[in-house]
Design a protein that fits this description.
Layout: H1 3-17, E1 52-57, E2 67-69, E3 72-79, E4 95-102, E5 108-114, E6 136-137, E7 141-145, E8 151-155, E9 160-164, E10 180-182, E11 185-190, H2 191-194, E12 196-201, E13 207-212, E14 222-225, E15 231-237, E16 240-244, E17 251-256, E18 268-270, E19 273-278, E20 283-288, E21 293-294, H3 296-299, E22 300-304, E23 314-316, E24 319-323, E25 329-334, E26 340-345, E27 357-359, E28 362-366, E29 371-376, E30 383-388, E31 400-402, E32 405-409, E33 413-417
Parallel strand pairs: 17-21
Antiparallel strand pairs: 1-33, 2-3, 3-4, 4-5, 6-7, 7-8, 8-9, 10-11, 11-12, 12-13, 14-15, 15-16, 16-17, 18-19, 19-20, 20-22, 23-24, 24-25, 25-26, 27-28, 28-29, 29-30, 31-32, 32-33
């Protein structure tokens, strides 16, 4: 072989060995907060011993989902007080951590403890714990929210940049909403902590604006292009779907949702229409964006009586998909009319607190007991697989899709799953 041909062969070998730039999953429910991924080749079947690429022991419990940024994974944990299965203890021993793992093999890169502002909630229902808010990142900084203990900003290397307080409120269900980013702002739904949405400067943590009157809203807002090239910040509160200007916090429009109790599921949107489910009893509503003031009479598309109290829906190809949190029922609805297309009860499903994720034509519904029901993303119901981790652990975090793999977080471990 000639030298030139040898060098060409070597060059080609090096080029094809370089993996494509992996897409990040930088916030709760991924890009846009909609729970949808364009990744292909996702696994369909697995167990605690099959198709597990790696499993990482976590330094503490938590219900926050992991996020993926560059070559790193970030999540939050807590320990020392009211740990799952070990109620009680001394609040002075409560530890919270922001944890960084290697995206390649799940090994811990660093863990930084943040102070807990006491007193904390003495008991949080259903063992939701004290690390429930998923972090968010702009690729340079990681922002983690710990309820009453505040918002913390870290460099990707683990250096703390700032800490900000957004309120002292507590609730028996704990804190849950995750921060989102808009331009130079970190926006936090601090409904539990101060009946507010608060915008902080990304660089300093200083408060930029605060909108009050946000009560009993555990959902993470989404950002959606609105009228005139502007962006709407949208969330659900009891009785309303509400849109704010993310630059100022000014209320843009509201729509009567028919729900009158606390709202947990995040909204989803497609084609200028927002879909919200939730409340007790749970129901659903579709609202067209672009209005001002009360748009109930002009922009509300439909309402429905089926929903979920906890987990968020998925939008795909003109249909909405979701799981009832306690009845083990999977729903599919026509997004244009709200008509229920199918309503399928699963066998011994358990509870669904995690929000589903869609990728590769499949929807992954994860139960608290570690079962994952894989369903075809189509209006004709088709259960593709039922996967059971077979471990005594709790899975409250929403699944993540990255690198053509599925990631499940339990109280004890982070699992990387691939065929």
């Amino acid at each position: 072989m000639s030298l030139s041909r040898y060098l060409l062969t070597a060059f080609v070998a090096v080029v094809v060995s370089i993996p494509a730039q992996a897409a990040d999953w930088p916030q709760f429910r991924g890009p846009g907060g909609l729970g949808v991924s364009t990744e292909k080749g996702l696994p369909t079947t697995w167990s605690d011993s099959e198709n597990i690429v790696w499993k990482t022991d976590l330094p503490g419990a938590g219900t926050s989902s992991p996020i993926f940024v560059g070559d790193k994974i970030f999540l939050t944990c807590y320990s020392g007080y009211n740990e799952p299965g070990q109620r009680g203890g001394d609040q002075a021993d409560l530890k919270r951590q922001v944890v960084c793992l290697s995206r390649k093999d799940g090994k811990q890169v660093w863990a930084k403890e943040v102070p807990s502002k006491l007193p904390e909630q003495e008991r949080i229902r259903d063992d939701h714990g004290y690390a429930s808010n998923t972090p968010v990142s702009d690729g340079k900084t990681v922002f983690a929210f710990f309820g009453k203990s505040g918002v913390f900003a870290f460099e990707l290397t683990g250096k703390q940049l700032w800490h900000a307080d957004v309120g002292d409120g507590l609730d028996g269900w704990g804190s849950a909403a995750s921060p989102v980013l808009f331009e130079n702002l970190v926006i936090v739904n601090a409904s539990v902590e101060s009946d507010s949405i608060v915008a902080l400067d990304k660089a300093t943590g200083n408060e930029v604006w605060r909108t009050r009157g946000i009560k009993q809203a555990w959902n993470t807002p989404i950002l959606l292009p609105g009228a005139g090239g502007k962006t709407d910040l949208i969330l659900s509160i009891p009785g309303k779907v509400q849109a704010l200007d993310p630059k100022t916090g000014e209320s843009l429009w509201t729509c009567d949702s028919g729900n009158r109790t606390y709202m947990v599921p995040s909204v989803v949107a497609e084609g200028g229409v927002i879909y919200s489910i939730g409340g007790r009893p749970s129901s659903a509503v579709a609202v067209k964006t672009g209005g001002r003031g009360d748009v109930t009479d002009t922009h509300r598309q439909w309402t429905g009586q089926k929903g979920s109290i906890v987990s968020s829906p998925i939008y795909h190809n003109g249909h909405l998909y979701w799981a009832h949190e306690s009845q083990g029922i999977l729903y599919c609805a026509d997004a244009q009319t709200g008509e229920i297309v199918y309503e399928e009860r699963l066998n011994r499903a358990g509870q669904f607190y995690a929000s589903p994720v869609l990728a590769d034509g499949k929807i992954y519904y994860v139960t608290r007991e570690g079962k994952t029901f894989v369903v075809a993303a189509q209006p004709d119901y088709k259960l593709l697989a039922t996967n059971d981790m077979g471990v005594r652990d709790t899975f409250n975090a929403s699944p993540v899709v990255a690198d053509g793999r599925l990631f499940l977080r339990s109280n004890k471990h982070l699992y990387c799953i691939d065929e």
